[in-house]
Design goal:
Distance between the termini: 25 Å
Radius of gyration: 22 Å
Structural class: alpha/beta
Strand content: 5-15%
CATH superfamily of the largest domain: Type I PLP-dependent aspartate aminotransferase-like (Major domain)
Order of helices and strands: HEHHHEHEHEHEHEHEEHHEEHEEEH
Number of strands: 13
CATH architecture of the largest domain: 3-Layer(aba) Sandwich
Number of helices: 13
Low-confidence stretches: none
Shape: globular
Oligomer: single chain
Number of domains: 2
Mean pLDDT: 97
Length: 409
């Protein structure tokens, strides 16, 4: 039996014994796609999403019309936020709201946090955080005349507690990091880093875009101040589905968000003069909620609730472990390196493989119906959504990659 035969047998066995196998057929599959390895960027649509959207348009919108707002729509940002908090964030009710995009929510929470630390002039962030995080903070620093303290992180790893300990000080107002690094998938020690931030008297804001729905997250237990994340990756909310914001309840009375829209005001329908913030998490809403964009997310969360996050995380580790085994056995001799952690506790939901010609090879994979994504300068990111991805599908995609790198040697 060849090494590839052994991997094929392992994939078959893993699929046959997969406790979450029943979920794979509950997602729509593109007929021209052999292997979808980008579920960490955009999750597949659950079956029934089209019917749910059509029903909403026909009944909730079409029949109830504007009455839908007072029926329930105005509550959706909070009720859906509570559900995400319960299922994916380790957050008690009343601390998560669904609204806006990740970028807008990041801006809101960062500005609110900085206003709560007057006199402190420094924001700590890392060089390999997701671009929008860096760009937003660069803009805020320019607006407010603050300093950015950059922690240089390895693109094959991520931010560590040791690095944070050496970066924070009495002038630190806010720290902003990703819980799971977008490039490598490295999982930061959020609890330890949060503790270091608080010891320095600063607030911390976590980006959970590559964590929510695939990694264990315990925001309340960790003592996190603030967090943001998207819903179109592992939460399967669809392209452009609205993001979520977490604000620990201990900060609700002190933080004042900077985009003072009417639906974040106490008694918004009074239409009165002056902005008086609403109580609780509602104060972090600005404008009209993106109700139509929330419809697919409501159904997708039912799948996560049925599967349970512990089972999702367990399968995620098996999937990423399988990619590592394949890379070691079939790709390393072709100059492919692994730019992701091997330790399970530090490994997120995707694996990044690197070679200097992977930009071209990624395009050729797409032409063959194998869909990963490319991250400059030389990384192919193998994104593995546990509910919708089989091991044999991963094997097919990686085998195509092996064939292409073999041809290119």
């Amino acid at each position: 039996m060849t090494a590839l035969d052994s991997l094929a047998a392992a994939a078959k066995h893993l699929d046959a014994t997969d406790p979450l196998a029943r979920f794979r057929d509950r997602f729509l599959a593109a007929p021209d796609v052999v292997s979808y390895l980008d579920g960490n960027s955009l999750g597949r649509p659950p079956r029934g999403t089209d019917a749910a959207v059509a029903e909403f348009i026909r009944q909730d919108w079409g029949e109830r019309l504007i009455r839908g707002w007072t029926d329930s729509w105005l509550d959706w940002p909070r009720t859906l936020g509570d559900r995400i908090g319960q299922l994916a964030l380790g957050a008690a009710a009343g601390q998560v709201v669904v609204a806006d995009s990740t970028t807008v929510l990041l801006y809101k929470l960062a500005r609110a946090a900085l206003a709560a630390r007057p006199g402190r002039r420094e924001i700590v962030l890392d060089t390999d955080n997701f671009p929008t995080d860096r760009y937003v903070l660069e803009g805020i620093a320019a607006e407010l005349g603050l300093r950015l303290r950059w922690v240089r992180t390895d693109p094959a790893a991520g931010i560590t507690a040791e690095q944070v300990a050496g970066a924070v000080g009495p002038d630190t107002a806010l720290l902003v990091f990703s819980h799971a690094a977008y490039r490598s998938g490295y999982v930061a020690d959020a609890q330890a880093i949060t503790r270091l931030a608080h010891e320095a008297g600063a607030l911390i804001l976590w980006d959970l875009c590559h964590s929510a729905g695939v990694l264990p997250v315990l925001l309340d237990d960790w003592g996190v101040d603030l967090a943001v994340g998207c819903t179109y990756k592992y939460l399967n909310g669809g392209p452009g589905s609205p993001a979520f914001a977490y604000v620990n309840s201990r900060h609700h009375g002190a933080l004042r968000q900077p985009i003072q829209g009417w639906l974040g005001r106490a008694e918004p329908f009074e239409m009165g003069p002056g902005y008086v913030p609403a109580a609780g998490i509602q104060r972090f809403v600005s404008g009209t909620p993106p109700i139509l964009g929330m419809v697919p997310l409501r159904g997708a969360l039912d799948l996560l609730a049925e599967a349970g996050l512990p089972a999702v995380r367990a399968k995620s580790l098996r999937l990423t472990g399988f990619v590592l085994d394949f890379a070691d056995a079939q790709l390393s001799d072709h100059g492919v390196t692994v730019a992701s952690p091997r330790e399970p506790d530090r490994r997120g939901g995707h694996i990044t493989l690197c070679r200097n010609d992977f930009r071209e090879i990624a395009d050729r994979l797409w032409a063959r119906g194998v869909i990963p994504d490319f991250r400059a300068p030389d990384g192919i990111r193998v994104g593995l959504a546990p509910l919708s991805t089989s091991f044999t599908e991963v094997l097919a995609g990686l085998t195509a990659l092996r064939d292409l790198v073999g041809e290119s040697v």
